[in-house]
Structures are given as structure tokens and as C-alpha cells.
From TrEMBL:
Sample GO molecular function, one term: oxidoreductase activity
InterPro entries (alphabetical): CE1759_FMN_reduct, Flavoprotein-like_sf, FMN_Rdtase-like_dom, NAD(P)H-dep_FMN_reductase
Domain of life where this protein originates: Bacteria
Location of the NADPH-dependent FMN reductase-like domain: 5-155
Keyword Oxidoreductase listed: yes
Keywords: Flavoprotein, FMN, Oxidoreductase
Native organism: Microterricola viridarii
Protein name stated in the entry: NADPH-dependent FMN reductase
Statement: the UniProt record of this protein carries the keyword Flavoprotein: yes
Length: 208
């Protein structure tokens, strides 16, 4: 059976968090779509709060801890990515941005991504398109057309929320599964820190 690797990044700060809940729903729906097509799916779920100090130390020193290095390799070596952040002050969280800042900007090239966000009110939903989508476009990822935003009210029992949020999750999962189906990223060796590309331009050094 063909294997596809799915990385799930949640930048929620509380535990439990609506951010992690949205990430888990997107993950389960994507896995279901891929399994329906005969794929085996390996899922790695990453809570950024667990590596927050490692991310900051990496930004200060330029070197990742073994724990952060493992996380970065899981993301850059995946066939697909689900990235979900809470919205703070109209944009993604600082922790979310810092994590993607420490990844080499070529390491996510052609990586299929579904973006998601959570906030207290629906007025922050546009952050998907003016903040998250440009971030992953800059990183050369392939962003699925459907982004998923969940406000606090979307987790309630109203008729609208019961219908619309699952529909958005299902549509985004279907798009990500379709993009992951033909991926060969997990079979490639990638450097999440761009070391090879940097050193190749230093003194004529060529990595062996």
C-alpha cells in the first residue's frame, strides 16, 4: 500500500484549544479521503507550544535543538501539511510565524497545504487570505483553494454552524487529498535549514 505523510501544525496556546480541535478535524477528514483512495497515511501532529522555547533559541542562535530539528524534518518531509493558527491582532500568532521563519524558504516548495485559523468572532476570517495564504505562497507551497476559519460560534449547536463548518472542512480535506495523491515529497531528501544551498556558495564548497 502506498504511504502518504501528513504533517499537522497547531499553534494553539491553551490545552485543550479550538485551534487543535480544528486541526484534528481537518486531519481526520484528509486521512479519510486518502484511505478511500487506497493510501496508507502517516500523521505527525505538532503542537508548537511544546517547542516554543526551542523555536526562540533557534532564532537567537541559528541552531535547532534535536527536538526542533525532528519537528522541522517532519514538516519539510511531508507530502501534505495542515497549518492552523489562532488569530491575534488581525493576523497569525507570533509563535506560528516564528516557526515558519526558522524553516529555509525553499524547503516547502510544492508542498500541498491547507490553511486554517480560529478566533472569537467571524470578523477575523479574512486573515486566511491576507495573512496566511501570502505566507505560504512566499514559501512556494501549493495552498489549497479552501481555507477553513472557525469562530467560537461555529462549535455551537446552531443549524448554521452544524452545517457550514463540516462542509468547509470536508471541502478543504478533499482538495488536500487530491494534491497529496500524486506527491513524491516524502521520498526526497530535503534540508529544512538550507545548509546545502548556503554552503555551496561559500568558497566554492560543494556538499558531498
Amino acid at each position: 500500500m502506498t504511504v502518504r505523510k501528513l504533517a499537522v501544525v497547531s499553534a494553539g496556546l491553551s490545552q485543550p484549544s479550538s485551534t487543535r480541535m480544528l486541526a484534528d478535524h481537518l486531519s481526520a477528514a484528509t486521512v479519510s479521503r486518502l484511505e478511500e483512495q487506497g493510501f496508507e497515511v502517516e500523521v505527525t501532529t505538532i503542537e508548537l507550544r511544546d517547542v516554543a522555547s526551542d523555536i526562540m533559541n533557534n532564532m537567537l542562535t541559528g541552531f535547532p535543538s534535536p527536538k526542533l530539528e525532528s519537528v522541522l524534518e517532519a514538516v519539510t518531509g511531508a507530502d501534505g501539511l495542515i497549518a492552523v493558527t489562532p488569530i491575534f491582532t488581525t493576523s497569525y500568532s507570533g509563535l506560528f510565524k516564528s516557526f515558519f521563519d526558522v524553516i529555509d524558504n525553499q524547503s516547502l516548495t510544492d508542498l500541498p497545504v491547507v490553511i486554517g485559523a480560529t478566533a472569537g468572532t467571524p470578523r477575523h476570517s479574512l486573515a486566511l487570505d491576507y495573512a496566511l495564504r501570502p505566507l505560504f505562497t512566499y514559501l512556494h507551497a501549493v495552498v489549497a483553494p479552501t481555507g477553513v476559519f472557525a469562530a467560537t460560534g461555529d462549535w455551537g449547536e446552531s443549524a448554521d454552524s452544524v452545517k457550514t463548518l463540516p462542509n468547509r472542512i470536508g471541502r478543504a480535506a478533499g482538495e488536500l487529498a487530491a494534491l497529496m495523491k500524486d506527491s513524491d515529497r516524502s521520498s526526497q531528501v530535503r534540508d529544512p535549514f538550507g545548509f546545502d544551498s548556503v554552503m555551496s556558495g561559500v568558497g566554492g564548497f560543494q556538499p558531498s
